[in-house]
Write a structure and sequence with these properties.
498 residues; 32-stranded antiparallel β-sheet; mainly beta
Length: 498
């Protein structure tokens, strides 16, 4: 179906005046992602970044057809017919552009019908073409969009536009097609397509731009695509919010690499950032309060950052996209993870920057279950993550907890009670862990520090009483190589021998 829309979009472009083409060379000036080839690169750096694109200023919905422009703070609203006949002076400066006119804009609505699953359905394309006249506003803060409204089984309103911030190169020519299949007469969720084709002055890469499409009708949907830098491509979004599902199809029509963020606002808000998108990419996201699932018919050596707003708190970063990943639970003490590719690394945190809780796990294939309670009396339990690389951090008030390990063991349990008469319990079913570090402090009075190249334990428990301090040990624990094992009790650190 998407190929038909590509053909339609190309046909539309063919009847519009084309000025020149451009070739692109790869030169991404900023990359928000880390090196994906080394699982050690994360090293406790907790920030997860979703690219912040252009902040559009959208007027309240109105009936009719007009062009809105904003250039360096100067705003204008021009009737669509007038804008098509005569170029627009967007900066109120007679010395810029051609004869004082800075942009030429053409836009129109293109309705048509086609068969989908044996039934005829209506599709509507809102076509926008912006041509920059001269170079004076080339690096300005610029925004333009078209709004068209009409009555068809109720009022239908379409908006499509672009934004380019200060210092970013506004394309010489930008062509955008926003297509909606509203399924007005069918009980089916709308489908949305955004097709973009930027044309620049030279062979150099263009600037970072954002485009958007907005639909008011059977529902209200807003889709924004942020590019670093702008490329030619098509994106399809099919939201099925009642089922908590969204499917995405991405076609990169340019050879240029880009970082892309898809912003969707409907019954939910979701932001998805993908680095170096492949030439074709199809995937589905399924989400609910305690469940997240990503599925695709292929795996991709790219990184994806996901934020779903108003459904659950937290953000996710997936490094090397597998065919399937599923997560039940969250950052509240229970998590079940299924990943079908050992190359994948998953990072979860409660917020973008300086999170109070984050969890990273990699090198797993299959299902792993993590349970935890990070308090003065608490525990960590991990099952089914043999050979996994794991990092867990929690900081709540004066409590700080950090653990790193490579799980050679199928099972790992670490429990503690850090009172004056407390205990710690460790069990790995007598299988080895390596590169294990645990550093936990609970205020200024109690803490745990273990740093070991290798260790294993079987129902090991060390308990203590205070004043005078004495320790009681049972079960088995064994260390290999250099290690440190210390407990802070009532503000005093004690080195523990196995």
């Amino acid at each position: 179906m998407i190929k038909k829309y590509v053909v339609i979009a190309l046909a539309i472009f063919a009847v519009l005046p084309a000025y020149h083409t451009a070739t692109f060379s790869q030169n991404v000036s900023q990359n928000i992602f880390h090196d994906d080839n080394n699982a050690e690169d994360y090293n406790g750096e907790k920030d997860i970044t979703i690219h912040q694109g252009y902040d559009f200023k959208l007027l309240p919905q109105q009936f009719g057809a007009y062009i809105y422009t904003k250039c360096n703070g100067i705003e204008k609203k021009t009737p669509l017919l007038q804008a098509i006949i005569q170029p627009i002076d967007v900066d109120n400066n007679a010395s810029t552009g051609e004869d004082g006119k800075d942009v030429k804009i053409s836009a129109f609505i293109f309705p048509y019908v086609q068969q989908v699953d044996g039934k005829w359905v209506l599709a509507i394309s809102n076509v926008l073409k912006i041509i920059r006249l001269g170079d004076e506003i080339k690096n300005s803060d610029f925004e333009a969009y078209v709004e068209v409204s009409f009555n068809y089984n109720g009022e239908q309103t379409f908006r499509v536009g672009l934004g380019s911030g200060y210092g970013e190169e506004l394309p010489r020519e930008m062509r955008i097609v926003f297509t909606v299949v509203p399924y007005i007469m069918q009980d089916k969720n709308p489908e949305f397509y955004l097709n973009t084709e930027p044309v620049y002055d030279s062979n150099e890469k263009g600037g970072n731009i954002s485009i958007f499409g907005e639909y008011f009708g059977k529902s209200h949907e807003y889709i924004q695509i942020d590019y670093q830098p702008a490329i030619a491509g098509m994106i399809k979004v099919v939201p099925n919010i009642e089922l908590g599902n969204m499917s995405f199809s991405i076609q990169r029509l340019s050879s240029q690499d880009t970082i892309l963020t898809i912003r969707y606002e409907g019954k939910i808000k979701a932001n998805i950032t993908i680095d170096k998108i492949p030439s074709e990419m199809n995937f589905e996201l399924l989400f609910s309060e305690n469940h997240f699932e990503y599925s695709s018919n292929n795996e991709f050596n790219v990184t994806m950052a996901i934020e779903v707003v108003d459904k659950f708190t937290g953000v996710m970063k997936i490094i090397y996209l597998p065919r399937h990943i599923a997560i039940d639970g969250g950052l509240e003490g229970y998590m079940s993870i299924y990943v079908d590719n050992k190359k994948t690394r998953l990072i979860l945190s409660d917020k973008f920057s300086n999170p109070s809780t984050y969890f990273m796990i990699g090198n797993i294939s299959g299902e792993a279950t993590l349970q935890w309670q990070i308090e003065k009396e608490g525990f960590i339990r991990l099952d089914g993550a043999k050979d996994a690389k794991m990092e867990l951090y929690a900081g709540l008030g004066n409590m700080k907890f950090k653990m790193d390990s490579i799980q050679k063991a199928e099972h790992f349990y670490f429990g503690w009670n850090m009172s004056d008469e407390g205990y710690i319990k460790i069990d790995t079913d007598w299988e080895w862990l390596n590169d294990f570090t645990m550093n936990a402090t609970f205020g200024d009075t109690s803490g745990i520090l273990i740093d070991a190249g290798f260790f294993r334990a079987e129902n090991y428990e060390i308990s203590w009483v205070f004043d005078p301090i004495s320790f009681n040990k049972q079960g088995n624990i064994e260390f290999m190589g250099d290690f440190r094992f210390s407990l802070m009790i009532n503000g005093v650190w004690h080195n523990i021998t196995p």
